[in-house]
C-alpha cells in the first residue's frame, strides 16, 4: 500500500444497483492518534480524490444505521515482470498486491483533516507539504474531502520467482529445443523532473531529486532481487 500511489476503492452504491462502483483515489496509510505508529501497528487508510456527494451521503447513511461507516474494499496491485513459460498455461506475472476491507467515514475534524492532507501530500513526495504555499485557503478546504477507512481485515499476495513449468515439459527435449522460457522485467522508475511552463525556480528542489533517486534505487534493487531468483532458483515444478 505504501508503494502504490493510486488506491481502487470499491463499494455498493445502492442495494438495488446490480453492480459495485470502483473509484481510483489517492491514498496513504497512517494513524492520526499515533502518527509514529510503525507498519506492525494499526493503520487507517486515508483516501482523497473524487468523493462524490453520493458517496459521502452513503457513508453518513451507513453511520446513521449503526454501522462504523460505508463498507468498502480498497485494493492495489503492481506488476514487476512477465513470466514466459514453456506452456501457455504456466505463463504468469511477478506482482505485489494487497486488499483491505473496512468502513469509510468522512473526516470532519479540522485538525485531523489537515494532518491527513499532509500525510497524502508527503506520500506523493516526502517533505512536499513544507515546500508548498501555506496555509490552504478556505475554498480548498471546503472543496476537499478526506475519507478515513477503519481497516477490519486485509490480505496480500505476492509472486516473486522464475517460471514454474511442468516437469514433463522441462524434460521434453523437443519442447526445450523450440520454446524460449524466461522473465521480462517491468520496472517502474521516475524520469527526470520537468519544470512547468510557469515555473520560476531554476534548480530542481532537493526533496524532488531525493524522491527520484530513492524511488529508482528501491525499484532497481527489488528488480535485481527478482532477476537473481529467476537465474538461480531451482525449478519449482509448477508450485509458484
Number of helices: 6
Through-space gap between termini: 23 Å
Number of domains: 1
In the CATH hierarchy, the architecture is Roll
Helix percentage range: 25-40%
Overall residue-averaged pLDDT value: 92
Instruction: Name the CATH superfamily classification.
Output: Electron Transport, Fmn-binding Protein, Chain A
Unreliable segments of 5+ consecutive residues: none
Structural Rg: 22 Å
Structural class: alpha+beta
**Backbone shape:** globular
CATH top level?
Mainly Beta
Strand order, main sheet: write it out.
1-2-3-6-5-4
Order of helices and strands: EEEHEEHHEHHEH
CATH fold node name = Pnp Oxidase, Chain A
Organism: Fusarium oxysporum f. sp. raphani
Pfam family, one: Pyridox_ox_2
Protein name: Flavin-nucleotide-binding protein
Main features:
240 residues; alpha+beta; Pnp Oxidase, Chain A; six-stranded antiparallel beta barrel; 6 helices; 29% strand; Pyridox_Oxase-rel
Structural description of this entry:
- With 240 residues, the protein is α+β, with helices and mostly antiparallel strands.
- It has one domain (6-232): Pnp Oxidase, Chain A (Roll).
- 29% of the residues lie in helices and 29% in strands.
- The protein contains six helices and seven strands.
- β4 (70-84) and β5 form a beta hairpin.
- The longest helix is centred in the C-terminal third of the chain and has 27 residues, at 206-232.
- It is globular.
- The two termini are 23 Å apart.
- Pfam families: Pyridox_ox_2.
- It comes from Fusarium oxysporum f. sp. raphani.
- This is Flavin-nucleotide-binding protein.
Amino acid at each position: 500500500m505504501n508503494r502504490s500511489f493510486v488506491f481502487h476503492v470499491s463499494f455498493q452504491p445502492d442495494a438495488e444497483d446490480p453492480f459495485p462502483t470502483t473509484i481510483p483515489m489517492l491514498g496513504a496509510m497512517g494513524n492520526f492518534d499515533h502518527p509514529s505508529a510503525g507498519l506492525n501497528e494499526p493503520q487507517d487508510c486515508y483516501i482523497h480524490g473524487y468523493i462524490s456527494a453520493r458517496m459521502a451521503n452513503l457513508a453518513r447513511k451507513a453511520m446513521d444505521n449503526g454501522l462504523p461507516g460505508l463498507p468498502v474494499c480498497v485494493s492495489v496491485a503492481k506488476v514487476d515482470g512477465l513470466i514466459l513459460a514453456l506452456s501457455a498455461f504456466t505463463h504468469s506475472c511477478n506482482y505485489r498486491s494487497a486488499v483491505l476491507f473496512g468502513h469509510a467515514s468522512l473526516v470532519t475534524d479540522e485538525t485531523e483533516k489537515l494532518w491527513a492532507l499532509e500525510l497524502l501530500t508527503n506520500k506523493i513526495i516526502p517533505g512536499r507539504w513544507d515546500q508548498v504555499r501555506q496555509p490552504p485557503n478556505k475554498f480548498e478546504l471546503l472543496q476537499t474531502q478526506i475519507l478515513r477507512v477503519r481497516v477490519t481485515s486485509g490480505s496480500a499476495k505476492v509472486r516473486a520467482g522464475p517460471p514454474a513449468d511442468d516437469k514433463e515439459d522441462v524434460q521434453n527435449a523437443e519442447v526445450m529445443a523450440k520454446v524460449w522460457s524466461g522473465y521480462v522485467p517491468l520496472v517502474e522508475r521516475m524520469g527526470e523532473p520537468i519544470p512547468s511552463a510557469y515555473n520560476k525556480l531554476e534548480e530542481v528542489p532537493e526533496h524532488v531529486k531525493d524522491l527520484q533517486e530513492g524511488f529508482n534505487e528501491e525499484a532497481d534493487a527489488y528488480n535485481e532481487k527478482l532477476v537473481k531468483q529467476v537465474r538461480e532458483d531451482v525449478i519449482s515444478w509448477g508450485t509458484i
